Amino acid sequence: MGFLDVILGRSKPVRPDLDQLFALPSAAVTLRAGAGFVPTGLGSVCFASVEGGAFDRIRRDVGELLDADTERGGAPVEFSRDSYGYTWLLARRPVDDTAALVNDLHAVNTLLQEGGFGPQLLCSLMGFRDEGRRPLALVYLYKRGTFYPFAPVAGGGGADVAGKRDNELELQVRALLADDLRIEEDLGRWFPVWGAPGL
Asked: Which InterPro entries does the UniProt entry name for this protein (predicted)?
């Protein structure tokens, strides 16, 4: 960091640490024991949209990377775009194979980063549910290297109740996972990911 950065109050951005994702399996064990939430087998990666040939190349590369696992069966990953124009890649694994899902998320993030798309990466998430079918996601902020819980309030059909989240549950999960994950301290950065694939 230079002298002008100090004077002008600019800080050096945190270098992404994708290996933080490997803490998710132990966090899942803690979450099950402490709050009754179990993995859904779904996880996703979100990044700013990439157009044309670059997007086609990403789709092909990710498919080839995850297709290498022949036990998976079916589509290795689903691509979608949300209403804000962000691209989501949804990965599926058996609910009892959290480590394999984390490996997939790490591999996709690494592939995008090494392909020059690191600046477009926003977040990754892993979905959970409790016995009452309440949804919960552990969200990894790529540019911060931190996690936060996101708990939308589900309606009768399982869909998110527009704009409502269970703040009490999020704070409970934060306290529960403080020793397992690098939790984002700035609550203002606990962005809602309404309707995110994998949630």
From this structure: PspAB-like
Residue 46: strand pairing partners? 88, 123
User: Which residues on neighbouring strands pair with residue 147, listed in sequence order?
Assistant: 140, 183
**Which structure tokens are listed for 191?**
């962005």
Q: What type of residue is 34?
A: G
The DSSP letter of residue 134 is -
Q: Could you report the per-residue pLDDT of 144-171, keeping only the tens digit for each?
A: 999 999 999 976 545 555 679 999 999 9
> Among 109, 136, 133, which residue's Cα sits nearest to residue 121?
109
What phi-psi label fits residue 9: left (phi over 0), alpha (psi between -120 and 50 degrees) or beta? left
With tokens 């529960």, the residue in question is 176
Which pair of tokens denotes residue 73? 């069966």
- Give the phi and the psi of residue 165 in degrees, each rounded to 5: -135, 155
pTM: 0.84
The total number of residues shown for the chain amounts to: 199
CATH number of 39-148: 3.30.70
User: Tokens at residue 4, please?
Assistant: 């002008």
Q: Which residues lie closer than 8 Å to 108 by C-beta, 6 or more apart?
A: 45, 62, 65, 66, 77, 89, 91
CA distances in angstroms from 56 to 69, 80, 149, listed in the order given: 21, 13, 32
Q: What are phi and psi of 44, to 5 degrees?
A: -145, 160
pLDDT mean values, one per 10 residues, the chain (199 residues): 50 66 96 96 89 76 71 66 89 92 92 85 96 95 95 68 85 97 96 92
